[in-house]
Amino acid sequence: MTDYLTKVAYQTVQNSKTYLSLAHKSISSQLLKTFAPPRESQTNPISPKLLMLIRERLDRLIETDWDDAESGIYPTDLLFDHPWYDFLRQYPLLCLDLPRVWSRSQQNKHQEFASDIDTSNYPAYYLQNFHHQTDGYLSDDSANLYDLQVELLFNGSADAMRRRILAPLKRSLNTWPAIPQNQIRILDIACGTGRTLKFLRGMLPKAALFGMDLSPAYLRKANEILSQIPGELPQLSQANAEEIPYRNDYFHAVTSVFLFHELPANPRQNVINECFRVLQPGGSLTLCDSIQASDSPELKTILENFSQMFHEPYYRNYIQDDLVQRLETAGFTDIQIETHFMSKYWTARKPHLSE
């Protein structure tokens, strides 16, 4: 009875997040048409049949999320880990920022940053207003709004998609049965505000967690969030994933969520190569990112609209890219793929020298 009530509570929370996200999109869309109408439509219409398919995929994602928690892969507490207070506090600021987002979108201003932001130490491909975000990933305001923006974008399912890395990661750690959990080292690259690290800590309370990101603002937000969790604080560092600042063969696992679609092709390969370098033989890489064109041809309209509606300059290349080939080029083996809702997952292993 308790499990049933918990499941109903979880489904109720998820449905509420979905309806709130749809309401926000509907209202903001009407405001945009009224006060800043676009010169011409840049997107293709979505049919009722396609909307129904998206809803079915979302329902399956939520069911899988519950099943993984119920089976003990991670605590059910993680299903209810929603920063409601932070979202309520930031939502008015998000709304106030919308006119600037709309203006930047219509004027095709994609590299616009506040004058006090030093952009000199970042790769050119990173200096973008991804999603038309004010200051891109380089301000505290952007970091404060990010998690709310992503939840609204994915109709309240962003965390459920992040948690899909937990099951394959936990399976991959079975390679190290003799190593105590407090000696397991896991690196999350492009850790952003630390949501994935928070879920990793919930599943692996004693593991040594590491996070790295290019944005000092997002690392400050991650430190704020993660410092509220009991236990050892993950070690955070500012670094480019093309040059991971750790020695060879150091980590038992590396994870990354929603990074690769925001990288050009060559850096994408460089990051994979670096992940291979810092993993111990037998270690695993677990990636989460957008679905690709070959996975779901029926969602082609959605994928095409995404790159048009949101400033994602490398997305069209990404959805056609062969990440399996890139993983194999780096040296990975045992590559497995899953898809859930609007995201795709790769798990790969660095072979032992004797293999």
TrEMBL record:
Residues of the Methyltransferase domain: 186-283
Q: Which GO terms describe its biological process?
A: methylation
Q: What is this protein called?
A: Class I SAM-dependent methyltransferase
Q: Which Pfam families match?
A: Methyltransf_25
Molecular function as annotated in GO: methyltransferase activity
Instruction: Please provide the record's keywords in A-Z order.
Output: Methyltransferase, Transferase
| Species this chain originates from | Phormidium pseudopriestleyi FRX01
